[in-house]
Every structure is written in C-alpha cells, then in structure tokens.
From TrEMBL:
UniProt superkingdom: Bacteria
Coiled coil feature spans: none
UniProt xrefs under InterPro entries: GntR_C (IPR011711), TF_FadR/GntR_C (IPR008920), Tscrpt_reg_HTH_GntR (IPR000524), WH-like_DNA-bd_sf (IPR036388), WH_DNA-bd_sf (IPR036390)
Assigned keywords, A-Z: DNA-binding, Transcription, Transcription regulation
Pfam families: FCD, GntR
Organism: Sphaerisporangium dianthi
Source taxonomy: Bacteria, Bacillati, Actinomycetota, Actinomycetes, Streptosporangiales
Signal sequence interval, chain numbering: none
Protein's recorded name: FadR/GntR family transcriptional regulator
CDD domains xrefs: WHTH_GntR (cd07377)
Length: 232
C-alpha cells in the first residue's frame, strides 16, 4: 500500500490492480475522464497516479492515442507493488508456480550458506521465530513466523544478493501462506522448519540443503492439496 499518501495512493492501487487483473488489458486505452468519475478525484490526482504506474512500466501515453496499457513484457515485474498485485489477483496462481521454481533455486543455496556462515545470533533469531508458534497459534501468526524464518535464514547466508531476493520471495510467500495456513495447522508448519534449523545449527550444509528441499516439496504438496479441494 501507500501509507500516508491518501487519495493519490488509493488511486494508484486501484488502477494498478485493474491492469494486473486484466480488467484493463494490454493495449487498451484508459479513459482519464472516466477514471476521475469512477474514483471521484481530480484530473491532477489521476495524472499523478498514472505517472507512478508509468514508472512501473504499466502504462504509457502517446499523442493522438492517449494513455494506454503497455504489454506485460514491458512491465517491471519485480517491482514490489506489481508483485503484490499479481499474487493477490485471481490469476495469480501461475505466478505462484513461478515462485516455487525461484524458491527451489534460491533457498536451498541460502540454507547451505547459512549452515556454513551462521552466527550464534542467527541461531537465536531462527530459534525464537519457531518458538513463537504454539498450539494456539492462528493463521496470521504462522504466516508471520514463516516469513520471518525464511528472511532470517537468507540473512544468515551473508550473501547480499541472496538477501535481496527476500522481498520477491516474501511477497509471494505471504499470498501462498494465507492459502495454505488459512486454518492454522502449526503441526504441518513446525517439523520441516525445525529440520532446516537443526542442520544449520549443526553446521551441516548438505543437510541444510536437503532439509530445505524437503520443506519446499512439502509446501508444494500442501498447496496442491488446497487447490484440489477447491475444485471439488
């Protein structure tokens, strides 16, 4: 979101979501007068919102053509807002599949490095993260713990580029977690994460990598099971 940016931020969010969801398809022309009426804002607010969206690669303006939606291939797909809008859109399932592939590349390597480079402080932070999940933990608590665990694990890798991947993973992981952990299920959450932590604590890079791959495989199975139940 755009905290503190008021109406301007709300209009950026609304138009951005329309574009990402396909309501305003690539190539379509945006009616600026219509946007003013729809969101009950001034022409200035609409123009400023479109400048933000243009910087993200979503829209462009040309003489005689007006303001139009650019092809998806020209969007700044790694922009944090764009990632969030895509994962939250009804069509975000395909992006979750892409996220899984990225995670299988990044996180096992991150776990391996963390096992070799972690400090006692890293171990304490990872341990505290899992300890925060108990028998009465709800969905939101599990989601926040999961995000924190994966973030802190990448931080323990001491690789700046891997650490920067966290914002991509975290945005998609939140959407995935809300789907899978919607009813809590801390029993499903803790064992695979504890296995990763145990290997990191033992300074076992091979074991940490294996444990992370097993965690990701289980996560994919859980997600598929939820999807299958939704189709029944």
């Amino acid at each position: 979101m755009y905290p503190g940016r008021g109406v301007h931020g709300q209009v950026v969010e609304a138009i951005g979501r329309r574009i990402v969801s396909g309501e305003d398809a690539p190539g379509s022309t945006l009616n600026l007068d219509g946007l003013e009426v729809t969101y009950d804002v001034s022409k200035t607010v609409v123009r400023e919102a479109l400048k933000v969206l243009a910087a993200k690669g979503l829209v462009d303006a040309r003489p005689k053509r007006g303001t139009f939606v650019r092809p998806r291939s020209e969007w700044s797909l790694l922009d944090p807002d764009l990632l969030r809008w895509q994962f939250e859109a009804p069509t975000g399932g395909g992006l979750l599949d892409d996220l899984y592939e990225v995670r299988t590349i990044v996180e096992p390597a991150g776990a391996r490095l963390a096992a070799a480079r972690r400090t006692d402080e890293d171990l304490a932070r990872l341990t505290d993260t899992l300890a925060a999940v108990g028998p009465d933990s709800g969905a939101q608590e599990i989601v926040e713990a999961d995000l924190a665990f994966h973030r802190r694990l990448l931080e323990a890798s001491r690789n700046e580029l891997l650490i920067r991947m966290e914002y991509i993973i975290e945005i998609g992981l939140r959407a995935r977690d809300l789907l899978v952990h919607g009813e809590g299920h801390q029993d499903d959450f803790l064992p695979p994460h504890q296995a990763v932590l145990d290997a990191v604590r033992a300074s076992d890079p091979d074991g940490a990598e294996r444990a992370m791959r097993a965690l990701l495989e289980q996560a994919a199975k859980d997600e598929q099971a939820i999807k299958n139940r939704g189709r029944q």
